[in-house]
Amino acid sequence: MNFRYKLIQFMSGRYGSDNLNFALLILAAAVSVVNIFIRSLILQFVVYALIIYAFYRMLSRNIEARRRENRWFNDKVNFVKKRSELYNQRKNDKFHVYKKCPACKAILRLPHRIGTHTTVCPRCGQEFKVKVKK
Ligand SMILES: [Zn+2]
């Protein structure tokens, strides 16, 4: 009986790896590199905890719970990705400025005109001043 077969047998019915596990191990590696310089005992424990958690997930037989965790993680990653896309889109928009309404926190897209202007929020009707530099 070879090692490969034993491994397959051992892993059958277990969860295996996913995006969250990959991220946990990358994070553990990153913290471990940082800890080369800091040499903190707490960070060392964090590294061990991350690795143990990743292995626990990999070997877990509760597949549904692990899927749920991974789904939660993927949702968070997608949220951050969408946010950064939106941020880049706004940053590259030369014809508009994006300002937050001080009353209702809505983001308003306004024409890019240099100076101080007064604008009215279309959502809540609040009037406020907008400063546009360069
Ligand atoms: Zn408003």
Topology (SSEs and partners):
Layout: H1 3-11, H2 19-38, H3 41-59, H4 63-92, E1 96-100, E2 107-111, E3 115-120, E4 127-132
Antiparallel strand pairs: 1-2, 3-4
Bound molecules: zinc ion.
Compute the number of helices: 4
Question: Residue share in helices?
Answer: 55-70%
User: Averaged pLDDT, please?
Assistant: 95
Domain tally: 2
Give a list of the ligands. zinc ion
- Report the count of strand segments: 4
Sequence of strands across the biggest β-sheet:
1-2
- The arrangement of helices and strands along the chain is HHHHEEEE
Structural class: alpha+beta
Ends apart, CA distance between termini: 72 Å
Amount of beta strand: 15-25%
Radius of gyration: 24 Å
Overall morphology: elongated
Overview of the structural elements:
The mean pLDDT is 95. It contains 4 helices and 4 strands. Helices cover 58% and strands 16% of the residues. The protein is an alpha+beta fold.
Key structural traits:
134 residues; alpha+beta; 2 domains; two-stranded antiparallel ribbon; 4 strands; elongated; binds zinc ion
What is shown here, in short?
The chain is α+β, with helices and mostly antiparallel strands and 134 residues long. Helix content is 58%, strand content 16%. 6% of the residues are buried.
